[in-house]
TrEMBL record:
Catalyzed reactions: 4-amino-5-hydroxymethyl-2-methylpyrimidine + ATP = 4-amino-2-methyl-5-(phosphooxymethyl)pyrimidine + ADP + H(+); 4-amino-2-methyl-5-(phosphooxymethyl)pyrimidine + ATP = 4-amino-2-methyl-5-(diphosphooxymethyl)pyrimidine + ADP
EC number: 2.7.1.49, 2.7.4.7
PANTHER family attached to this UniProt entry: HYDROXYMETHYLPYRIMIDINE_PHOSPHOMETHYLPYRIMIDINE KINASE THI20-RELATED (PTHR20858:SF17), PHOSPHOMETHYLPYRIMIDINE KINASE (PTHR20858)
Pfam families linked: Phos_pyr_kin
Protein name in UniProt: Bifunctional hydroxymethylpyrimidine kinase/phosphomethylpyrimidine kinase
Lineage summary: Bacteria, Bacillati, Actinomycetota, Actinomycetes, Kitasatosporales
Species whose genome carries this gene: Streptomyces seoulensis
Enzyme class: transferase
Length: 263
């Protein structure tokens, strides 16, 4: 524990709300609490969501997003930022502009589609993600579907991970973590800055209750960076955290339950 009264590192998530509490802002704040940092939120969109999928989604006005960001940054300050669901081109561009002024590391989870196939980003926003958001990322964390959406690059085996990472790096993030969890065989993620390369392997858990995995991983990376860890160490620790959270994912409702932050 920290000495009483000493402030923890501060981490800001800019993302959507999941009413079911499994992904989005709710997963981000749970991850941050579990990892001992102070979590703060800029809500970009509100979803009506449960274990069966997303029943509705409403974007907040750009003004409301800007105001939340300014309130947090101008007074409290941030030591890392994480972005998740940004919904529209207008919001992607506004958020990219806001975070371009921070010195804090930024983890961009380029959220496209939920596990149930519900769109969380308009197709018209993809170009803004490529040209405005990725260039201001310290670490981008696409999964294989997001790699295809962003670069057209299809990853069929582990050998494709490095060229796919190069295709994402071409848009300007300092590091990319490609999440290869859906590859056949062993689950392997690739982290690279184009120079150094790390392959992160984890035992595959036969657990379907994995809602919120991507949000949790990106928030754990941001929490590590806020504590001052270098990117490879922050990503390695985040991977360990999310692997435990997946192992303990639990059934809730009739569909896919959430990963667990209390293990
Ligand atoms: N809902 C929100 C608000 C999210 O940000 C995300 C993922 O980033 C999801 C749902 C999807 O979560 P999953 O794909 O783990 O079901």
């Amino acid at each position: 524990m920290r000495p009483a009264g000493q402030a923890p590192p501060r981490v800001l998530t800019v993302a959507g709300s999941d009413s079911g509490g499994g992904a989005g802002i709710q997963a981000d704040l749970k991850t941050m609490l579990a990892l001992g940092v102070h979590g703060m939120s800029v809500i970009t969109a509100v979803t009506a969501q449960n274990s069966l999928g997303v029943q509705g989604a409403w974007e907040l006005p750009v003004e409301a997003v800007r105001a939340q960001y300014r309130s947090v940054v101008d007074d409290i300050g941030v030591q890392a930022v994480k972005t998740g669901m940004l919904a529209s081109a207008e919001l992607v561009e506004a958020v990219a502009e806001l975070i371009s002024t921070t010195d804090a590391p930024v983890v961009v989870d380029p959220v496209g589609v939920s596990k149930h196939g519900d769109p969380l980003l308009a197709a018209s926003a993809l170009d803004s993600v490529r040209t405005r958001l990725l260039p201001v990322a310290t670490v981008a964390t696409p999964n294989l579907d997001e790699v295809v959406q962003l670069t057209g690059f299809e990853v069929a085996s582990e050998a494709d991970l490095r060229p796919a990472a190069e295709a994402v790096l071409a848009y300007g993030p300092r590091w990319v973590l490609i999440k290869g969890g859906h590859l056949p065989g062993e689950a392997v993620d690739l982290l690279t800055d184009g120079d150094q390369e790390f392959r992160l392997r984890a035992p595959r858990h036969d657990n379907r209750h994995t809602h919120g995995t991507g949000c949790t991983l990106a928030s754990a990376v941001a929490s590590g960076l806020a504590k001052g860890l270098p990117v490879p160490e922050a990503v390695t620790a985040a991977k360990e955290y999310v692997t435990g959270a997946i192992a303990h994912g639990f059934a809730l409702g009739a569909g896919i339950g959430p990963v667990d932050h209390g293990w």
